[in-house]
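User: Need the bound-state model for S-adenosylmethionine:
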Amino acid sequence: MIDLGTGDGRFVSAAAKKNPRKFYIGIDAAVDALRKPSMKATRKPAKGGLPNVMFIQAAVEDLPEELDGVADEIHIHFPWGSLLAAVLRGDAGVLAGLRRIAAPDCMLEIIVGIDPTRDRAELERLGIPDLTDEYLREGLLQKYTAAGFEYVHGGRLAEGDWAALETSWARRLSGNSNRIVASLVLRAV
Ligand SMILES: C[S@@+](CC[C@H](N)C(=O)[O-])C[C@H]1O[C@@H](n2cnc3c(N)ncnc32)[C@H](O)[C@@H]1O
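Assistant: Bound-state model below.
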């Protein structure tokens, strides 16, 4: 499983602890937050180490070719900056990179959280169009389809559904009732 824009890797570390027989990779462009979980993972298992976890510093725009075809699950939770822009604009190069690291049938789950008022300037700066149903269904989805992903399900999530997600940003954002959180789940074909 690959978690892209993993931040402090909380999602990856928690999942790896629950499923010791599966291998987990957390990727982020920013190295600072990766240091602590990465060091922790290398400890002896009795001291909280996780031999089934690896953290990699890489940008979604330039994923290492060693990852080609390895992921049976890709998660992108609460992206910001260029990662948010890439997934919501459906940048062809980034979608091709996601498809490249995906094994056949790989599940791609994207969860975005946006506060339309507070984030307006940032969304404009990133060139993200208004997230109307029409744009999501026709504009954006077509780009994922063209990149080799088929739609599984998606839509707005109730706070009860996302606040319990084992990520630091789910915790940080919960309680903001203006934030719209939506998921998009696709499958590599
Ligand atoms: C709001 S944080 C979310 C972290 C984590 N997924 C969570 O839910 O707690 C967004 C993360 O995306 C990363 N990011 C932004 N642009 C990126 C890019 N182009 N490639 C990879 N990671 C990126 C940031 O460094 C940051 O750690």
